[in-house]
Write a structure and sequence with these properties.
Elements lengths: L2 H10 L6 H13 L3 E2 H8 L8 H13 L3 E6 L2 E6 L8 E5 L5 E4 L3 H4 L15 E4 L2 H16 L4
Parallel strand pairs: 4-6
Antiparallel strand pairs: 1-3, 2-3, 4-5
Helix pairs in contact: 3-4
Bound molecules: zinc ion (3 copies).
Length: 152
């Protein structure tokens, strides 16, 4: 999914083209990581005076409903990112610090499918949380720095 495809999707579904929507989508496209509503507000509040959380949430929910964004809960906060363009079934490694994601193509359901009698499985969710290389290094450095500071 890219900004043009997303705007087309909105048009197809009968939603108005607004600069606000375009800017929100552009932000997700530029950042290509999970963002919370407050990140969106922070990025756009200079341009749109009086932009409210409510407006942002409503648009984020709409985008998610239309499959433009995908949502997940990280640290008890709902976060959003552009839906992956690929139809290929895959899962994500998600960095808890910066929200960047990486694709993994192994699927746990391939190795140990879950079946229960009388229950028809039509989908599943699987996410792996941790720290990306950059954020992981930063954490290590901080830990090292802490250790080298003598306790008074
Ligand atoms: Zn993906
Ligand atoms: Zn990271
Ligand atoms: Zn899977």
């Amino acid at each position: 999914m890219n900004v043009d495809q997303a705007m087309n999707k909105l048009k197809e579904e009968g939603y108005k083209h607004t600069d606000k929507r375009l800017d929100m989508l552009q932000l997700f496209s530029d950042e290509s990581r999970y963002l919370a509503a407050k990140d969106v507000l922070e990025a756009l509040h200079d341009k749109y005076n009086g932009l409210s959380f409510d407006t942002i949430y409503r648009n984020l929910s709409l985008f998610t409903e239309l499959g433009i964004l995908e949502a997940t809960e990280l640290d008890g906060e709902k976060k959003f990112r552009f839906s992956c363009s690929t139809d290929h079934h895959h899962h994500h490694l998600i960095c808890l610090d910066c929200g960047k994601t990486k694709h993994i193509h192994e699927c746990p359901m391939d190795h140990s499918p879950i079946y229960s009698e009388g229950f028809k499985v039509i989908g599943h969710k699987f996410e792996v949380y941790g720290y990306c290389e950059e954020c992981g290094k930063l954490k290590e450095d901080i830990e090292k720095a802490k250790k080298t500071i003598p306790e008074n």
